[in-house]
Design brief:
Helices cover 68% and strands 7% of the residues. It has 456 residues and is an alpha+beta fold. A hairpin with a 5-residue loop joins strand 3 and strand 4. The longest helix has 70 residues.
């Protein structure tokens, strides 16, 4: 059987070979497959804590500092925050997404490839003796012209993406610290509620035993029954809140739901708070504000490019030809768009409006930051004063309760009076624990709002 190439004229074989080779190279270009299952299975198994510990010791971040983590001891809020940053599945996905912006910045720095055009005209009849041949190489000069501004824009976009991720990491670490403080406080509240529940149940059993003998009135029995039910409801609610907080922390850390994390008690120290000074710190160190600044720089470059795009096409072509008579020529062409009607005015208007929008968004974010910090500082000031008051009351109540307990033991005071005294102390202790939880969460929220340490 004759090959197709054998049936072609000799002058046609060279160009056809080039075309066939180009088609073959295009067909061979492919990307390796990447199945989903391994990543999903690894995420469900949870992080390799030993690897996380090693990474935490050398972790690099604009705000977060490396932490030496000892997995054999209860984890501090700082350690939990760093584990969350390293192991959180959402952050892993966000970091992978941010690589796209880096790839775009890399792409912007590459020179555009030239375009080669080959032509062949087969001589079918006539006095001439040659086939016609054409070879052209064309270069898009617009890409060369715009290379610097596009590169500046994409680099600013990549910086914005990195800062957005860093801000998300800071927020995640802050949320881990908040949950750690909540879990510690709720553990204490659960213990107090369980003690109150046990005391209420014991008192109810006493009055139920005394009621048949006529030692207590029916309304006293009903009061104790209501108190026991109320104490049981509070204990169940506290345990439910604790369980919710533990599951939320496990999800944040990328751990399996059934995992139990040992948490070291957080420090309750609150430095002297100055809302104005903290706002100034926030303006200097908040990563989301820096990200918005980078986004504005990127859009500013987009405005410059929109202005340059008034001349939206510019191409240089060099050609070499041989006609059927054997004449050979070498020539060039320049093609460009003429800004006669459109002149890129629509693109310029959109770019300018977008830049104005970003400037307004930045101002709004700064304004909201100041308001958030002022509100949190005010709340912490009020809660701190309330905590001091409750702590003083609790200290004053304790000697009275001790004396009442002694009087009950001697039979000088009724059991009901002793139970009321104990309950007053329990209520104050529970209020103190609740205030500690609230203040701990407010401190964590303030740390997030400031975007870094509250003091040097």
């Amino acid at each position: 059987m004759a090959r197709l190439s054998d049936q072609m004229p000799d002058g046609a074989r060279g160009p056809m070979t080039v075309i066939a080779l180009a088609a073959l190279l295009t067909a061979c270009a492919s990307a390796p497959s990447a199945p989903l299952a391994p990543d999903v299975d690894a995420t469900l198994r949870g992080p390799d804590l030993a690897a996380v510990t090693r990474e935490a010791a050398t972790f690099k971040h604009p705000v977060l500092k490396p932490v030496a983590i000892d997995l054999t001891r209860p984890l501090t809020p700082e350690a939990l925050g760093l584990i969350a940053v390293i192991a959180n599945p959402d952050l892993k996905a966000a970091r992978a997404k941010a690589k796209v912006a880096g790839a775009q910045a890399f792409d912007a720095g590459l020179l555009p490839d030239p375009v080669i055009t080959l032509g062949f005209d087969k001589l079918l009849s006539g006095p001439d003796m040659f086939n016609g041949l054409t070879a052209q190489i064309a270069q898009d000069l617009i890409a060369l012209r715009d290379r610097a501004v596009v590169r500046a824009r994409n680099q600013a976009t990549a910086r914005q993406a990195r800062l957005d991720i860093a801000w998300q990491e800071w927020q995640t670490a802050g949320q881990a610290r908040l949950l750690a403080g909540r879990i510690s406080a709720l553990t204490r509240i659960v213990a107090l509620d369980d003690a109150t529940r046990a005391a209420s149940d014991a008192m109810l059993q006493r009055v139920l035993a005394a009621a048949p003998r006529g030692d207590v009135k029916a309304d006293e029995v009903e009061t104790r029954r209501i108190a026991a039910i109320d104490a049981a409801d509070k204990a169940v609610t506290a345990r439910r809140d604790l369980d919710t907080a533990r599951h939320a922390l496990n999800a944040l850390l990328g751990l399996a739901p059934e995992t139990t994390v040992a948490i070291a008690p957080p420090t309750a120290e609150t430095p002297t708070l100055d809302a104005d000074a903290l706002f100034q710190r926030a303006r200097d160190q908040r990563l989301d504000l820096q990200a918005l600044q980078a986004g504005y720089a990127s859009q500013d470059a987009s405005v410059r490019k929109a202005v340059m795009d008034r001349f939206n096409s510019l191409q240089l072509t060099i050609s070499r030809t041989r006609d059927t008579a054997g004449n050979q020529t070498l020539g060039g062409q320049v093609a460009f768009g003429l800004p006669a009607w459109n002149a890129g005015r629509g693109g310029i208007a959109i770019a300018l409006a977008t830049r104005d929008q970003l400037r307004a968004e930045y101002a709004a974010r700064v304004f909201a930051t100041r308001a958030d910090i002022a509100e949190l500082v005010s709340q912490l000031t009020v809660e701190s004063a309330e905590r001091d008051r409750v702590s003083s009351q609790l200290a004053a109540l304790q000697p009275i309760v001790d004396a009442t307990e002694a009087a009950v033991a001697h039979g000088d005071v009724s059991l009901a009076a002793g139970a009321a005294a104990r309950q007053s102390v329990a209520d104050k202790a529970l209020l103190l624990a609740t205030l500690d939880q609230t203040m701990g969460e407010q401190r964590a929220a303030l740390l997030i709002a400031v975007g870094g340490p509250l003091k040097d």
